[in-house]
Amino acid sequence: MSRQSFSLLKSLGRIASGSKTQTRSVTYMPRPGDGKPRPVTLIPGDGVGPLVTNAVEQVMDAMHAPVYFEPFVVHGDMKSLPEGLLESIKKNKVCLKGGLKTPVGGGVSSLNVNLRKELDLFASLVNCFNLPGLASRHENVDIVVIRENTEGEYAGLEHEVVPGVVESLKFCSERIAKYAFEYAYLNNRKKVTAVHKANIMKLADGLFLESCQEVAKKYPSIAYNEIIVDNCCMQLVARPEQFDVMVTPNLYGNLVANTAAGIAGGTGVMPGGNVGAEYAVFEQGASAGNVGKDTTQEQKNANPVALLLSSAMMLRHLQFPSFADRLETAVKRVIAEGKCRTEDLGGNSTTQEVVDAVIANLD
């Protein structure tokens, strides 16, 4: 080989070493047939739900992601889940969902709760973290709130014992503790914090803590601690960076997740989902105002970021990691640039303008 040819090969090697291919992680080796498009049940939902789920559909189409959607019309004021919905989710194993209004009082049950019960989606997960370029009161926030999803006060397990006396039933399940520690182990998380009120709810929350303590013994590499829920809320707004993975009973988890979301940048950017042994439903992580105000719907300026990030979680769940990375990277670029933001993030962009920006930033 001539000296000139050798020099050229060295130059090409330096170019290759600086190319994007060097930034890839170790390759994902799919099984034969893993690239086949997967069906996903779609629930557009109420309010801004159709707006943000359509945003996900547009981005998936732009990426040529190997998924296609089976939509079902569902509204929160329906008396029951529509025919065929559960069968679709059980067949597809995965669902993407917009917000559903939950009636207050009046004896109409929550379809959100019904869906979780019917599919035994016992674990709710919300990831609350700082997004580069998005101002928040605290830095270094990266909290995962895992709450029990099918039992306790928030699940509607209550009855009237005698007129004027209502009893709420709360049970404790070891499986939510197992899921929290397994999640921490598989995602290289360092600490699990159990949130409770065992100083007052001595039996119910006491049993919850016993379950967490027993499971913690099986994961010696993961630190474990406990905190009373009211102190937890105070610590969240004072020093949220101290928390990593938090595991909670049902009601506390809903409050803690929304508090953590508000600290890290708002409910409009926090992804999440609900999972059981067989099925998973992905939706906006923190639920506060998840169907949006009427003006938001009319002006079409709902924030699609939370559901876009949730759909990236869904893609990883479906074992399409490259598509998930592309989507998540594009969303983070748009947030970091700061040129295209909806009203809740201090901007004046419409949902469609955010979608267009995300698509423009796809690799």
Task: Please give a structural write-up.
This protein is of the alpha/beta class and 363 residues long. It has two domains: 36-126 and 268-363, Isopropylmalate Dehydrogenase; 137-264, 3-Layer(aba) Sandwich (Isopropylmalate Dehydrogenase), CATH 3.40.718.10. The chain is 40% helix and 18% strand. It contains twelve helices and twelve strands. It has helices spanning 3-17, 49-63, 85-92, 111-119, 174-186, 204-216, 229-238, 250-264, 294-299, 305-317, 321-337, 351-360; strands at 38-43, 67-71, 94-97, 123-129, 142-148, 158-162, 165-168, 191-196, 223-228, 245-248, 271-275, 280-284. Helix 2 (49-63) links the parallel strand 1 and strand 2 (67-71). The relative contact order is 0.15. Residues 1-21 have low confidence and may be disordered.
In short:
The protein has 363 residues and is α/β, with parallel strands linked by helices. It is built from twelve helices and twelve strands. It folds into two domains: 36-126 and 268-363, Isopropylmalate Dehydrogenase (3-Layer(aba) Sandwich), CATH 3.40.718; 137-264, Isopropylmalate Dehydrogenase, CATH 3.40.718.
Largest sheet: 10 strands, mixed
Strand content: 15-25%
**CATH architecture annotation of the largest domain:** 3-Layer(aba) Sandwich
Characterize the overall form.
globular
Major sheet: order of its strands? 2-1-3-12-11-4-5-10-8-9
**Low-confidence runs (pLDDT<50, min 5 residues)?**
1-21
Structural class: alpha/beta
> What is the CA-CA span between the terminal residues?
38 Å
How do the SSEs run, as a string of H and E?
HEHEHEHEEEEHEHEHEHEEHHHH
The overall strand count is 12
Number of domains: 2
Mean pLDDT over all positions: 87
CATH topology of the largest domain, by name, is Isopropylmalate Dehydrogenase
The percent range for helix content is: 25-40%
Annotation field: number of helices: 12
Rounded to an integer in angstroms, the radius of gyration calculated over CA atoms is 22 Å
CATH class designation of the largest domain: Alpha Beta
> What is the H level of CATH, i.e. the homologous superfamily of the largest domain?
Isopropylmalate Dehydrogenase
Keywords: Magnesium, Manganese, Metal-binding, Mitochondrion, NAD, Oxidoreductase, Transit peptide, Tricarboxylic acid cycle
InterPro entries: Isocitrate_DH_NAD, IsoPropMal-DH-like_dom
GO molecular function, one term: isocitrate dehydrogenase (NAD+) activity
GO cellular component, one term: mitochondrion
